[in-house]
């Protein structure tokens, strides 16, 4: 009897402790378990501020780790979710390249030693990495649009070259591709088993990191694909504007936006002090250090867990990093408020959005070409598109970010088509400016395709003000 009473007492005590522990976690009094990069697996994919999972005050290190997007556990996503009577018709994927070596180095410091060869048993690991390396080595005779045919198909330098894709970047997009394969091919049968070359549309800028990122995603999506069916088109512009790149008003918006950025930097005395301290450490003028864009190199150190550089004058440290990253976050906040970047984005993103709805419209007519489109691009590609769509609260594109447009057909009403927009796996359709009020007026779970068409063909120009009703007039209007 005594033993039984003690057992019941211990059981009750254990239950009480469990309740207290869960309560403390709920009220953020003790930390919850995190992934290996220090960010909880649930909050890593957040793109909009969330008062429950976000730190109570903007944390520059937290934001930087989200940007790194270090591969850990498989990501849950909302791609491909729709009522059973909807049929997936086409998918359009915009990606930012994966993790890369910096484009700039901190003057007079040793370059971070990152190995850009691919090693199958080295972290970060992916089960398809070894097969990817083997398949890429067989693609030397692949036919790509010039000048892509002169680029290497995978990174292969013991010490990374400037801007080169890393193994982390390859793994990030192998994961993206496998996730999309599980959803769009295995579940929704978007492409037949005997898919043909004309059912894919592949386009990339002329950088090795974007071509290699596109190939990594494609290999995860279509393992051991037939090289004869693959053709990447070259896009000379980071805006993917093809033959519609000349837009004087867009450039004027950009100049005003850059002026705003400059004035904000001038007002930040702490930022200037930090640049001054760092310049003394590396023994260069403050102006030269600022021009070298040290945040790019420092992010590489952080993402790869490499110590910040030191000289005989001292060390660049985490406090310096926090000040510069905090300013970046403040700059993004003011950018949303001032609206200059929005004007630039509406004109900058219009050509690629116009191309995308053109492909979607052909799919609604029953055409079977270009059912899966992939644009392998940069942060300066995705950021204007996000802004133009009205997703002002979306986080700046992280490494290997993905923005997806899904086109669906209602089987019960075959003439009706709908769209979903997803950013890093999160459904943001009803955050877009063209569909944010739709769900308040309609019970339908997705946005009517005609809303997107009307937005691209008309409302983007209305949002710019003035009387322009087409892209050319909006780009050349006088008196701006």
Automatic annotation (TrEMBL):
GO-annotated cellular components: Golgi membrane
Subcellular location per the Swiss-Prot or TrEMBL entry: Golgi apparatus membrane
This protein's UniProt keywords: Glycoprotein, Golgi apparatus, Hydrolase, Membrane, Signal-anchor, Transmembrane, Transmembrane helix
UniProt GO molecular function: phosphatase activity
Pfam families: His_Phos_2
SUPFAM superfamilies for this protein: Phosphoglycerate mutase-like (SSF53254)
Membrane topology: Single-pass type II membrane protein
GO biological process: chondroitin sulfate proteoglycan biosynthetic process; glycosaminoglycan biosynthetic process; positive regulation of heparan sulfate proteoglycan biosynthetic process
Record field: catalytic activity: 3-O-[beta-D-GlcA-(1->3)-beta-D-Gal-(1->3)-beta-D-Gal-(1->4)-beta-D-2-O-P-Xyl]-L-seryl-[protein] + H2O = 3-O-(beta-D-GlcA-(1->3)-beta-D-Gal-(1->3)-beta-D-Gal-(1->4)-beta-D-Xyl)-L-seryl-[protein] + phosphate
Primary location group: Golgi
Database matches in PANTHER family: 2-PHOSPHOXYLOSE PHOSPHATASE 1, ACID PHOSPHATASE-RELATED
Summary of the function given for this chain in its UniProt record: Responsible for the 2-O-dephosphorylation of xylose in the glycosaminoglycan-protein linkage region of proteoglycans thereby regulating the amount of mature glycosaminoglycan (GAG) chains. Sulfated glycosaminoglycans (GAGs), including heparan sulfate and chondroitin sulfate, are synthesized on the so-called common GAG-protein linkage region (GlcUAbeta1-3Galbeta1-3Galbeta1-4Xylbeta1-O-Ser) of core proteins, which is formed by the stepwise addition of monosaccharide residues by the respective specific glycosyltransferases.
Quaternary structure note: Interacts with B3GAT3; the interaction increases the 2-phosphoxylose phosphatase activity of PXYLP1 during completion of linkage region formation in a B3GAT3-mediated manner.
Family designation: Belongs to the histidine acid phosphatase family.
Name of the protein in its database record: 2-phosphoxylose phosphatase 1
């Amino acid at each position: 009897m005594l033993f039984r009473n003690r057992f019941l007492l211990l059981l009750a005590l254990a239950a009480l402790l469990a309740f207290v522990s869960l309560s403390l976690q709920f009220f953020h009094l003790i930390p919850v378990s995190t992934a290996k990069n220090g960010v909880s697996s649930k909050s890593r994919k957040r793109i909009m501020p969330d008062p429950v999972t976000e730190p109570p005050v903007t944390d520059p290190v937290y934001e930087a780790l989200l940007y790194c997007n270090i591969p850990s556990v498989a990501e849950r996503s909302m791609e491909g979710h729709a009522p059973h009577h909807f049929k997936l018709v086409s998918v359009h994927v915009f990606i930012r390249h994966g993790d890369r070596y910096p484009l700039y180095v901190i003057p007079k410091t040793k370059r971070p030693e990152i190995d850009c060869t691919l090693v199958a048993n080295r972290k970060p690991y992916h089960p398809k990495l070894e097969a990817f390396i083997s398949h890429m080595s067989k693609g030397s005779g692949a036919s790509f649009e010039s000048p892509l045919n002169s680029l290497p198909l995978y990174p292969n330098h013991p010490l990374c070259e400037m801007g080169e894709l890393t193994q982390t970047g390859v793994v990030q997009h192998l994961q993206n591709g496998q996730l999309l394969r599980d959803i769009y091919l295995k579940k929704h049968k978007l492409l037949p088993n005997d898919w043909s070359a004309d059912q894919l549309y592949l386009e990339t800028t002329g950088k090795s990191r974007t071509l290699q990122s596109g190939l990594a995603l494609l290999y995860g999506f279509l393992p051991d694909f037939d090289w004869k069916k693959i053709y990447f088109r070259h896009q000379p512009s980071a805006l993917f504007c093809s033959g519609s790149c000349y837009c004087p008003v867009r450039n004027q918006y950009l100049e005003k936006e850059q002026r705003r950025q400059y004035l904000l930097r001038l007002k930040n005395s702490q930022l200037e002090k930090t640049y001054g301290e760092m310049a003394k450490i590396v023994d260069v003028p403050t102006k030269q250090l600022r021009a070298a864009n040290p945040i790019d190199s420092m992010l590489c150190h952080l993402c790869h867990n490499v110590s910040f550089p030191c000289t005989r004058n001292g060390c660049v440290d985490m406090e310096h990093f926090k000040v510069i990253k905090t300013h970046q976050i403040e700059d993004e906040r003011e950018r949303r408020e001032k609206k200059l970047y929005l004007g630039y984005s509406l004109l900058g993103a219009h050509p690629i959005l116009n191309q995308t709805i053109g492909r979607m419209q052909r799919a609604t007519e029953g055409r079977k070409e270009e059912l899966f489109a992939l644009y392998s691009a940069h942060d300066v590609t995705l950021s204007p598109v996000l802004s133009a769509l009205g997703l002002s609260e979306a986080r700046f594109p992280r490494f290997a970010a993905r923005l997806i447009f899904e086109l669906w057909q209602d089987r019960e009403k075959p003439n009706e088509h709908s769209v979903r927009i997803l950013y890093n796996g999160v459904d943001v359709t009803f955050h877009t400016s063209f569909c944010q009020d739709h769900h308040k007026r309609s019970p339908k779970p997705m946005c009517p395709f005609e809303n997107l068409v009307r937005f691209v063909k008309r409302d983007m120009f209305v949002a710019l003000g003035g009387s322009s009703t087409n892209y050319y007039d909006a780009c050349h209007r006088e008196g701006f």
